Amino acid sequence: MEIRQASLDELLAVLTQIPEMQQLNDVAALQARIGERPYLALVAYRQQQPVACKLGYEWDQHTFYSWLGGVLPEQRKSGLAQRLLEQQQLWARQHGYQTMRVKSMNRYPNMLRLLINNGYQIVDYEHRGSPDNAKIYFAKSL
Q1: Do 43 and 55 meet the contact criterion of CB atoms below 8 Å apart?
Q2: CATH number for the domain formed by residue range(s) 2-141
Q3: Domain range summary for the chain, segments of one domain joined by +
Q4: Beta strands 49-60 and 63-71: pairing type?
Q5: Whether the Cβ atoms of residue 73 and residue 19 lie closer than 8 Å to each other
Q6: For 21, which DSSP code?
Q7: What is the rounded distance in angstroms from the CA atom of residue 83 to the CA atom of residue 89?
Q8: Distance of alpha carbon 59 from alpha carbon 81, whole angstroms
Q9: Which UniProt keywords apply (predicted)?
Q10: Regions of the chain where pLDDT drops below 50
Protein backbone atom coordinates (compact mmCIF):
# COMPACT_ATOMS: atom_id res chain seq x y z
CA MET A 1 0.00 0.00 0.00
CA GLU A 2 1.20 3.48 -0.85
CA ILE A 3 -0.16 6.87 0.19
CA ARG A 4 0.56 9.88 -2.01
CA GLN A 5 -0.42 13.51 -2.13
CA ALA A 6 -2.94 13.93 -4.92
CA SER A 7 -4.82 16.47 -6.96
CA LEU A 8 -8.48 17.19 -6.26
CA ASP A 9 -9.30 15.37 -9.52
CA GLU A 10 -7.52 12.23 -8.29
CA LEU A 11 -9.22 12.48 -4.92
CA LEU A 12 -12.64 12.94 -6.52
CA ALA A 13 -12.11 9.81 -8.64
CA VAL A 14 -11.91 7.84 -5.38
CA LEU A 15 -14.74 9.68 -3.60
CA THR A 16 -17.20 8.92 -6.40
CA GLN A 17 -16.61 5.19 -5.81
CA ILE A 18 -17.46 5.40 -2.10
CA PRO A 19 -21.23 4.99 -1.58
CA GLU A 20 -21.43 7.52 1.26
CA MET A 21 -19.62 10.15 -0.81
CA GLN A 22 -21.10 9.76 -4.29
CA GLN A 23 -22.99 13.06 -4.04
CA LEU A 24 -19.59 14.78 -4.19
CA ASN A 25 -18.93 14.77 -7.91
CA ASP A 26 -17.59 18.20 -8.75
CA VAL A 27 -14.00 19.39 -8.34
CA ALA A 28 -15.19 23.00 -8.53
CA ALA A 29 -17.37 22.44 -5.44
CA LEU A 30 -14.42 20.98 -3.53
CA GLN A 31 -12.22 23.89 -4.58
CA ALA A 32 -14.92 26.41 -3.65
CA ARG A 33 -15.10 24.98 -0.12
CA ILE A 34 -11.32 25.04 0.27
CA GLY A 35 -10.89 28.44 -1.32
CA GLU A 36 -7.36 29.80 -1.14
CA ARG A 37 -6.51 27.96 2.07
CA PRO A 38 -3.67 25.44 2.17
CA TYR A 39 -4.98 21.88 1.85
CA LEU A 40 -3.82 18.29 1.77
CA ALA A 41 -5.35 15.66 -0.50
CA LEU A 42 -4.15 12.11 0.06
CA VAL A 43 -4.94 9.00 -1.97
CA ALA A 44 -4.04 5.46 -0.90
CA TYR A 45 -3.18 2.91 -3.57
CA ARG A 46 -3.16 -0.89 -3.48
CA GLN A 47 -1.56 -2.55 -6.49
CA GLN A 48 -1.53 0.83 -8.25
CA GLN A 49 -5.32 1.18 -7.82
CA PRO A 50 -6.77 4.07 -5.78
CA VAL A 51 -8.72 2.61 -2.85
CA ALA A 52 -9.03 5.35 -0.21
CA CYS A 53 -8.61 9.08 0.28
CA LYS A 54 -8.52 11.91 2.80
CA LEU A 55 -8.91 15.65 2.32
CA GLY A 56 -8.37 18.45 4.79
CA TYR A 57 -7.62 22.15 4.81
CA GLU A 58 -6.50 24.97 7.05
CA TRP A 59 -9.25 26.06 9.45
CA ASP A 60 -7.12 28.83 10.89
CA GLN A 61 -3.39 29.35 11.32
CA HIS A 62 -3.28 26.90 14.24
CA THR A 63 -5.92 24.35 13.19
CA PHE A 64 -6.19 21.83 10.37
CA TYR A 65 -9.68 20.57 9.50
CA SER A 66 -10.05 16.99 8.27
CA TRP A 67 -13.01 17.38 5.95
CA LEU A 68 -13.56 14.29 3.81
CA GLY A 69 -12.30 10.78 3.63
CA GLY A 70 -13.31 7.29 2.81
CA VAL A 71 -12.31 3.79 1.90
CA LEU A 72 -13.81 1.66 -0.86
CA PRO A 73 -16.20 -0.87 0.73
CA GLU A 74 -14.16 -3.91 -0.30
CA GLN A 75 -11.03 -2.39 1.30
CA ARG A 76 -12.53 -1.51 4.69
CA LYS A 77 -11.21 -2.92 7.97
CA SER A 78 -7.75 -3.16 6.42
CA GLY A 79 -6.11 -0.28 8.31
CA LEU A 80 -6.28 2.19 5.42
CA ALA A 81 -8.29 4.80 7.31
CA GLN A 82 -5.82 4.60 10.21
CA ARG A 83 -2.83 5.06 7.89
CA LEU A 84 -4.45 8.01 6.12
CA LEU A 85 -5.31 9.64 9.45
CA GLU A 86 -1.74 9.20 10.69
CA GLN A 87 -0.32 10.64 7.46
CA GLN A 88 -2.64 13.64 7.64
CA GLN A 89 -1.77 14.32 11.29
CA LEU A 90 1.96 14.05 10.54
CA TRP A 91 1.66 16.49 7.64
CA ALA A 92 -0.37 18.93 9.75
CA ARG A 93 2.16 18.78 12.59
CA GLN A 94 5.05 19.31 10.14
CA HIS A 95 3.27 22.37 8.75
CA GLY A 96 2.91 24.01 12.14
CA TYR A 97 -0.70 23.21 13.00
CA GLN A 98 -1.37 22.62 16.69
CA THR A 99 -4.88 21.17 16.54
CA MET A 100 -6.88 18.86 14.30
CA ARG A 101 -10.65 19.26 13.97
CA VAL A 102 -13.11 16.88 12.37
CA LYS A 103 -16.86 16.37 12.23
CA SER A 104 -18.69 13.07 11.90
CA MET A 105 -22.14 11.60 12.42
CA ASN A 106 -23.66 8.77 14.44
CA ARG A 107 -24.40 6.93 11.19
CA TYR A 108 -20.64 6.35 10.75
CA PRO A 109 -19.74 4.31 13.87
CA ASN A 110 -16.45 3.07 12.40
CA MET A 111 -15.31 6.66 11.93
CA LEU A 112 -16.36 7.55 15.46
CA ARG A 113 -14.34 4.63 16.83
CA LEU A 114 -11.33 5.58 14.71
CA LEU A 115 -11.38 9.13 16.03
CA ILE A 116 -11.85 8.16 19.67
CA ASN A 117 -9.15 5.47 19.42
CA ASN A 118 -6.76 8.12 18.10
CA GLY A 119 -7.26 10.58 20.93
CA TYR A 120 -9.88 12.86 19.41
CA GLN A 121 -12.29 14.31 21.93
CA ILE A 122 -15.88 15.38 21.44
CA VAL A 123 -16.05 19.16 21.66
CA ASP A 124 -19.58 19.80 20.42
CA TYR A 125 -22.78 18.08 19.31
CA GLU A 126 -25.51 19.28 16.98
CA HIS A 127 -28.87 17.52 17.02
CA ARG A 128 -30.33 17.42 13.50
CA GLY A 129 -33.72 15.72 13.72
CA SER A 130 -32.66 12.13 14.27
CA PRO A 131 -29.70 10.57 16.07
CA ASP A 132 -28.26 9.30 12.75
CA ASN A 133 -28.13 12.85 11.40
CA ALA A 134 -26.60 14.39 14.51
CA LYS A 135 -23.22 16.02 13.92
CA ILE A 136 -20.44 15.28 16.38
CA TYR A 137 -17.47 17.65 16.46
CA PHE A 138 -14.04 16.40 17.53
CA ALA A 139 -10.67 18.01 18.20
CA LYS A 140 -7.20 16.72 18.98
CA SER A 141 -4.09 18.55 20.08
CA LEU A 142 -1.09 17.74 17.93
Answers
A1: no
A2: 3.40.630.30
A3: 2-141
A4: antiparallel
A5: yes
A6: G
A7: 10
A8: 21
A9: Transferase
A10: none
